[in-house]
Automatic annotation (TrEMBL), chains A, B:
Organism, as annotated: Actinomadura rudentiformis
SUPFAM superfamilies xrefs: 6-phosphogluconate dehydrogenase C-terminal domain-like, ACT-like, NAD(P)-binding Rossmann-fold domains
E.C. no: 1.3.1.12
Catalyzed reactions per annotation: prephenate + NAD(+) = 3-(4-hydroxyphenyl)pyruvate + CO2 + NADH
UniProt feature coiled coil, ranges: none
InterPro entries linked: 6-PGluconate_DH-like_C_sf, ACT-like_dom_sf, ACT_dom, NAD(P)-bd_dom_sf, PDH_C, PDH_N, Preph/Arog_dehydrog, Prephen_DH
Domain Prephenate/arogenate dehydrogenase: 8-291
Species classification: Bacteria, Bacillati, Actinomycetota, Actinomycetes, Streptosporangiales
Keyword Cell cycle: no
Every ACT domain range: 296-363
Keywords, sorted A to Z: Amino-acid biosynthesis, Aromatic amino acid biosynthesis, NAD, Oxidoreductase, Tyrosine biosynthesis
Protein name according to UniProt: Prephenate dehydrogenase
Gene3D superfamilies noted in UniProt: 3.30.70.260, 6-phosphogluconate dehydrogenase C-terminal like domain, NAD(P)-binding Rossmann-like Domain
Similarity field: Belongs to the prephenate/arogenate dehydrogenase family.
């Protein structure tokens, strides 16, 4: 039995990472989930993962409470039209990373927009497909909701309930505003990351050997699936193009200022770096509030089982809450530095506890 | 007493992050370290951190084995000339992020290049100053060495011994080649990161609320100190300008292709994303070898002390070696997902062990 107030019977069209993760989250809340995907192997895997049952090919006996169209942006409108013709559900939503184009196409195709509320859960992974799905993928994440003017209140309620049931925070936003926002904080940075990584195809081994953490971070998302991303970029072309042009202009200007070499020119480049500082500082902290500043306690760790457990045990004994951890591996050596982020007031207590137990903690 | 084969008496000019870290590393190996910095507070802090003794103002009684000039790129040559006039050491090196300009300026000023070997340890932190210094900062990192043609073999030996004593891997490289390499893998990406972050100064709260891990990673290094970086960029202007122009061109072309909107245009944008995949894959893995693929085991963790210790203890009991860890915080909730990277063959064993002990590990 589904928990009260959530859609009890859900159809998920498209069992990729997002569709399967939603299915898993709704199953966990007790909903009945029916799955469909034009790729039979993907559908089978999602069923095996416990995400739900395969939707029978024929017409549904009774419309589900909600159908989630987890398909690429360009496929949303036609999938909606088809689903509505089959009478799959009472209410429909999608999960595409762009919102204006699918809504416009759906209107053009004559879909019933009184029962469609477009959605975009802001969650993802570098891996794709049902195998990477997680029932907690949306926990605490924003879930953008764009209701067309025709949408009935009960449709908005059902999709809002879906987002909440998946653990996300629903954010009502206009479709055009959404698309400009994600161009700025997601789609644009994605192409820039790819352009930096693309330079490395001409790098020699000396250059690659000098690569540090900075270029690794800047290019991490350049490892994503181009097939998925070209669909997103094409469907949000105008806002993304604007961001890319602005970045390209800043970079071209910086290049010519560096070539100029005067002190005034250097001051202009420094100004770009300062604007970078200011923009970076505006990104909210991981916990959704202001960016928190933690103290980092670095500990040298031998690369063997058991060591991390003992370190965290020592932290527990010291009563220190660990906010974040990262391992900085030393290339070519079986050694690493564990960086433990804690509240500033707890740093010295943790460092002393660890030193007292024989770990090397620089002062 | 210094360990055998390492410089026994070292002068460090400039007690910032890098200078103080070298001083700490050499002190740990038993070397006598003398420190100097034109900023008295920075010098005092380095002395208090145990990095060495303050260098007396007058002429040194006897030249040290080695002087490390840990000053900005533009200050290297004049600092070298001054140090050589004072007879500070038998051999000199620097740590600047660019190599061709300081070497050319040193030659122009008439420095004795037979006892100078330029160096660049590839290590750093987002924080700067002596307080951020660590004696293990260089462990396993590359340390580029650029010896001018005049350099005596014993000078090369002394600077190589310094790099090794700090735990780094010396890499002999031509100065111009070094500068082109770091423009590609460090200086260029730095400016690009700043340009992406600079866009966020015009973002509204909706956009900032939709920011995910991707834009956080791309803009992490945009938080660095502009005063430090403008010196580096200005001293390596030509190679950096080339990288920025290439990236700017790729972005401007991508923007106009997106505006074009044809399928052929989309294919060209997809090609940039594919080149991004290829370039990203060329970055060596953290251990210095090929990029290793680990399996990631996600575990839901309550945000309280002791939990991590128990998880790592369970991993130890299962005999699983942990290659990397990261905590994915769920914004707005006291919950997180611990992502444990392990060798693919160990993933299922770890997942089962954790499930058996009551943790939630998605399949």
């Amino acid at each position: 039995m589904a928990e009260e107030g959530i859609p009890g019977r859900v159809v998920v069209v498209g069992t990729g990472l997002i569709g399967t993760s939603i299915a898993l989250a709704m199953r966990k809340r007790g909903a009945e989930v029916l799955l469909t995907d034009r790729d039979a192997a993907s559908l089978r895997m999602a069923v095996e993962l416990g995400a739900g049952q395969a939707l029978p090919d024929g017409a549904a006996e009774e419309p589900a409470d909600l159908a989630v169209l987890a398909v690429p942006p360009a496929a949303v409108a036609v999938t909606l039209l088809d689903a509505q013709k089959r009478g799959l559900a009472k209410v429909y939503t999608d999960v595409a990373s762009v919102k204006a184009l699918p809504l416009a196409q759906a209107a053009q195709l004559g879909c019933d927009l009184s029962v469609f509320v477009a959605g975009h859960p802001l969650a993802g992974r570098e891996r794709s497909g049902p195998a990477a799905a997680q029932d907690d993928l949306f926990l605490g994440r924003p879930w953008a909701l764009c209701a067309p003017p025709e949408a009935k209140p009960e449709a908005v309620e059902a999709v809002t309930a879906l987002a909440r049931a998946c653990g996300a925070e629903p954010v009502t936003v206009d479709a055009e505003e959404h698309d400009r926002a994600v161009a700025l904080v997601s789609h644009g940075p994605h192409v820039v990351s790819a352009a930096v990584a693309a330079r490395l195809t001409v790098a020699d081994d000396v250059a690659l050997g000098l690569a540090g953490q900075g270029v690794r971070d800047v290019t991490r998302i350049a490892a994503s699936d181009p097939r998925l991303w070209i669909g997103i970029l094409s469907a949000n072309s105008e806002p993304v193009a604007e961001v890319l042009e602005a970045v390209a202009t800043d970079l071209a200007v910086a290049a010519s200022l560096l070539r100029d070499g005067s002190e005034g020119a250097a001051a202009h480049v420094a100004d770009l770096l300062l604007r970078g500082n200011a923009g970076r500082a505006r990104i909210p902290g991981k916990h959704g509030g202001d960016q928190k500043t933690y103290a980092v306690v670095p500990v040298m760790i031998p690369d063997r089982p058991g060591e991390l457990a003992m370190i965290f045990q020592a932290a527990g004994i010291a009563g220190v809450n660990i906010e974040d951890v990262a391992i900085e591996h030393s290339p070519g050596r079986p050694l690493g530095v564990l960086e433990i982020s804690v509240k500033p007031e707890a740093a010295e207590r943790l460092a002393e506890e660890l030193r007292a137990r024989g770990w090397s903690v620089p002062g």
